[in-house]
Amino acid sequence: MPQFRLTQISDTHLARRFKPLIDNFHRVSEHIDATRPDLVLNSGDVSFDGPTSRDDLVFAKQLHSALPVDCLYLPGNHDIGDNPTAVGPTPSQLPTEATRGAFISVLGEDRWHFDAAGWCFIGLNSLIMNTGLDSEAEQFDWLACALDKAVGKPVALFLHKPLYLDVPYDAERVETAIRFVPQPARRRLIEMFGKVDLRLVGSGHVHQRRDYTFEHVRQIWAPSAGFIISDARQEVIGIKEVGLVEYRFQPDSFEVRHVRAKGQVDVDLDTLLSKQPA
């Protein structure tokens, strides 16, 4: 029976100046070298500060290029900027066509779809949603075509931000709106995927490991491969630990394995930043 093995890493936040994060990435790389999946996906925040430092993107790409398997990428807010929400303050760095273009020029396409083991895999740029950028409308048009081709197959969706906290109709809150795909883009996405056999949504962004199912769709939040966020900065929703996620897809079924690479360390963000020169 054909199978497809995918390893999802997320929120690597790579930059030359953060040795603890580089060390954690090397531990992940060693695990990937030992397990040799068919594909590695970094689901966003590949770099520490892509919008203002192209070198962070370039350095992150160099490290990923040393992996022994092919990689795909999706942009996170630390790669291209954060999208505005209906509630809450406007992010200090909004996505632009320029920051998106810089991401694509270094890491490759910010959206993609392919078929493997009887499944349709779709990756989306969740950070341009709700921005009004031309690329947002283009992505929705592209998605409609991709979903037409996905009819009759189980579908796995990957994006940086989770769709929602618990249920699709969760209200946006000022304190947490930036954690999830913003409305009204979220509603539009859910309606579009309602026309296909969506089985899995894989995301990152929150730096907490979480695994639950709502209405036959399994929601996997990959933890950061790099660091954890203190309870003082962020409420506990799932499990605060570094790690990765391994998937094994077969026609009409899939398995999920939650993994911590040997030697990975729960680097605390506050400690990481306090060690940086002023």
| Number of DSSP E strands | 13
- CATH class wording: Alpha Beta
Give the overall silhouette. globular
Strand content of the residues, in percent? 15-25%
Strand order of the largest sheet: 4-5-6-7-9-8
Second CATH tier, the architecture: 4-Layer Sandwich
GO molecular function, one term: hydrolase activity
Protein name: Metallophosphoesterase
Organism: Bradyrhizobium uaiense
Pfam family, one: Metallophos
Please provide a written account of the structure.
This protein has 278 residues and is α/β, with parallel strands linked by helices. The protein starts with a strand and ends with a helix. A six-stranded mixed sheet has the order 4-5-6-7-9-8, with no helix packed on it. Strands 3-2-1-11-12 form a five-stranded mixed sheet, with no helix packed on it. The protein has seven helices and 13 strands. It has helices spanning 19-35, 54-65, 77-80, 97-107, 134-150, 185-193, 269-274, and strands at residues 4-9, 39-42, 71-73, 112-116, 119-123, 154-158, 197-203, 210-214, 217-221, 227-228, 244-250, 253-259, 267-268. It has a single domain (4-274), classed as 4-Layer Sandwich (Purple Acid Phosphatase, chain A, domain 2), CATH 3.60.21. The longest helix has 17 residues, at 19-35. The model has no long low-confidence stretch (mean pLDDT 96).
